[in-house]
Specification:
There is one protein chain. This protein has about 400 residues and is α+β, with helices and mostly antiparallel strands. The strands form 4 sheets. Strands 1, 2, 8, 9, 10, 11, 19 and 20 form an 8-stranded mixed beta sheet that branches. It has a 7-stranded mixed beta sheet with strand order 6-5-14-15-16-13-17. The protein contains 11 helices and 20 strands. Helices cover about 30% and strands about 25% of the residues. Helix 1 packs parallel to helix 4 and helix 1 packs parallel to helix 8. The protein folds into 2 domains: about 200 residues, 3-Layer(bba) Sandwich (FAD/NAD(P)-binding domain), CATH 3.50.50; about 90 residues.
């Protein structure tokens, strides 16, 4: 017989959306259990960008000062090297937020920080190594989940299941929710390359004739993202590691003496880029948020922050009702109604960028800058527009659910 557990809300997935939703609901006095299938949060090349909108939320929650004591790097200006010319793209220093920078922090540190604070609320539970394999359904309503654990099978009954289990979502699949796919013509290869003291201080995007290399400053190493045509990894492998190393050097010559560190294909991780969105994010007893509702591309690093905004909207709209009992599907649809517009806008922008900017479709002289980028170079005030779109995003959420939880 499976072990049974009952809670007001069960959240599937302990990523940014799931952990933030769990923290906020527990803080508001809702009995909540977060189920995470892995034994820890350590995963290479997860989204590590904490944007000003998320840092503002941490301030609202009274966590910011302690949060910024965690190891991190701060990016106040985003610059690109386009066809050999350095172009300032976004200046975060004028944003109307407490933190006028993007913080780079390993996602496992962020999740460990958030979960440690969530555990202080008596209504919060975190179950690691608990993989949800199916939904429990009664009279067309989702009433819980079935999971595998090292100790055996576990059934968790709940008034609400929140699917926050990412782009390969079990909850989404088992619920039979229809998904709309927006084809993007790229994938990304992620890698680590060591950093030297005299390397450039800023993180860069290197654009060259429609190709792109991103270097993120991770203090003692560069996290590199090399954009390739969709499904093109096998062809790159066939050309050999030496050719791949040469490709990196053509973008960032200062890495010439270090690309030899990429001496095995196991050191290069493929991220298959997806952009998709559920038509309906919910059904009776179930709500999907974050990548489970809308997979984002890594462009702009906005995915983690959009997922967190979903979690805030979920807590704002549902916590009070959920504390008293079940919520209706109409209540759940309010989350989608609140968050779908910013999701559509950002995904539309990402698809546009991928199809027009980083797929080799360039026009004009090889060394010329597109007119929009020339404007950014000539008029610094214009850099505040991309800064606001990336750093704050459309329709940022402010936490307003009651603080009904009690820290033990």
């Amino acid at each position: 017989m499976p072990e049974k557990l009952q809670t007001r809300c069960v959240i599937v997935g302990g990523g940014p959306a799931g952990m933030m939703a769990g923290y906020l609901l527990a803080r508001a006095g809702v009995s909540v259990a977060v189920l995470e299938k892995h034994a820890d949060f350590n995963r290479d090349f997860r989204g590590d960008t904490i944007h000003p909108s998320t840092l503002e939320l941490m301030h609202e929650l009274g966590l910011l000062d302690e949060f910024l004591k965690q190891p991190h790097q701060e990016l106040r200006e985003l610059r690109g090297v386009i066809n050999g010319q350095t172009v300032p793209i976004a200046d975060f220093r004028k944003l109307p937020t407490r933190c006028k920078f993007i913080a780079f922090m390993p996602q496992w540190d962020f999740l460990n920080f958030l979960s440690s604070h969530a555990k202080r609320f008596p209504t919060f539970q975190l179950h690691m190594e608990t993989e949800v394999v199916d939904l429990l359904v009664e009279n067309e309503r989702v009433i819980g989940v079935r999971a595998k654990t090292p100790q055996g099978e576990l059934e968790v009954g709940s008034d609400l299941v929140i699917g926050a289990d990412g782009r390969h979502s079990t909850t989404q699949t088992r619920a039979g929710l229809e998904q709309r796919e927006f084809g993007v013509p790229i994938d990304v290869l992620w890698m680590r390359i060591s950093k030297k003291q005299d390397d450039p201080e800023q993180s860069f995007g290197f654009f060259q004739h429609g190709k792109l290399l991103v270097l993120l400053d991770r203090d003692d190493y560069w996290q590199g993202g090399f954009v390739i045509p969709k499904g093109g990894f096998d062809e790159i492998k066939a050309r050999g590691l030496e050719q791949f190393q040469d490709d990196i050097v053509t973008f960032a010559g200062f890495l010439r003496d270090r690309v030899v560190e990429l001496d095995d294909w196991t050191k290069i991780k493929l991220l298959t880029v997806q952009v998709n969105r559920l038509c309906d994010w919910s059904r009776e007893g179930l709500l999907c948020i974050g990548d489970s509702a809308h997979a984002m591309s890594p462009a702009g690093g906005v995915g983690i922050n959009l997922a967190i905004q979903d979690a805030v909207a979920t807590a704002n709209l549902l916590a009070e009702k959920l504390r008293r009992g079940p919520v209706s599907v109409n209540d759940l649809r309010k989350v989608q109604a609140r968050r779908e517009w910013p999701t559509r806008l950002i995904q539309g922008m990402q698809v546009f960028i991928h199809r027009r900017v980083v797929t080799g479709r360039t026009s004009g002289e090889k060394k010329s800058l597109p007119f929009v980028l020339r404007l950014l170079k000539w008029f610094p005030i214009l850099r505040q527009l991309p800064a606001r779109f990336i750093g704050i995003g459309p329709r940022p959420e402010r936490f307003r659910s009651p603080n009904a939880g009690h820290i033990s």
